[in-house]
Design goal:
Shape: globular
Strand content: under 5%
Structural class: mainly alpha
Distance between the termini: 52 Å
């Protein structure tokens, strides 16, 4: 049989979902770009700063001091039998991670506009690498929590072993919300002004400076619509132990919101992704 006959007998097979599977394979293929973007942003963040990496320690520490004075010393809010600075900082860790991730993700596509408009790669690489940069700050800030535990002779219980689970929930919340704002910021540049407002407002409606136990039962489910409630309460449950409790209905609702954010964030980002190079 001639080559021409062989070619004429070839069949074109269209397989459902092939392009979608190829996209997720491309994420793995472009993992070196992911590492490069994350490492570049880490270096840029601390390069040519007077005190360098200490900025990751100063901001959450000062916020913890203010919240301890206002809510612990002046308002006399309950701390569940643990030192108030530890109560606050156990919540500051995931909150700062979420807030930094949201800010970095929302601007990540704009910052890398030249790369996006010239080279093909899965655009999910850009905002997810921004989350990794924020996670580095999270790890550095964790040294303050260790220092506070040593200062107050506080020893965590076995629950500390469950902390990686709640870190994964924090990642899901950060990536889900970050993908929404990254995509929206390309289409509507007004969102660069919306994100700082959400971060500032969210700090006060999230249980960072206070314990969720002070929220009245009739408001608990409404309060749990905040996705960071499950993250922060989970961190406190794992780190503080003792009298720290999880309100299961509220925690489940908040966790559901996190899952919804993650799924819809990926969906919306993928939907808008094909237009990024033209709009940006």
């Amino acid at each position: 049989m001639s080559n021409q006959e062989i070619v004429s007998h070839q069949e074109l097979v269209i397989e459902a979902g092939h392009s979608e599977r190829q996209y997720w394979r491309d994420l793995w293929r472009y993992r070196e770009l992911f590492y490069f973007l994350a490492w570049r942003d880490i270096l840029v963040r601390y390069k040519q700063t007077a005190i360098g990496i200490a900025w990751a320690l100063i901001r959450p520490f000062l916020t913890m001091v203010v919240f301890t004075v206002v809510f612990g010393n002046i308002a006399k809010l309950p701390s569940g039998g643990v030192p108030y600075p530890i109560l606050v900082f156990a919540a500051m860790l995931p909150w700062q991670f979420f807030a930094n991730s949201l800010s970095e993700c929302s601007n990540s596509l704009i910052t890398n506009a030249n790369l996006i408009s010239k080279v093909y790669f899965p655009r999910l690489v850009v905002p997810t690498s921004a989350v990794i940069v924020s996670f580095v700050d999270f790890m550095i800030s964790g040294m303050i929590l260790l220092g506070l535990m040593a200062w107050y002779n506080f020893v965590p219980s076995w629950r500390i072993l469950t902390l990686p689970v709640f870190i994964l929930i924090a990642f899901a919340a950060a990536i889900g919300a970050g993908l929404w704002f990254a995509a929206l910021n390309v289409e509507y540049r007004d969102f660069r002004y919306v994100v700082p407002f959400i971060v500032q407002f969210g700090l006060y409606i999230s249980p960072v400076g206070f314990s969720s136990s002070i929220v009245p039962p009739q408001w608990r489910l409404l309060y749990s619509l905040n996705p960071m409630v499950s993250v922060i309460d989970g961190f406190r449950w794992a780190i503080l132990g003792g009298e720290s409790k999880l309100d299961l209905p509220g925690f489940t609702l908040s966790l559901g919101i996190v899952t919804f954010l993650l799924v819809t964030g990926i969906w919306y980002f993928r939907k808008m992704e094909r237009t990024f190079a033209d709009v940006i």
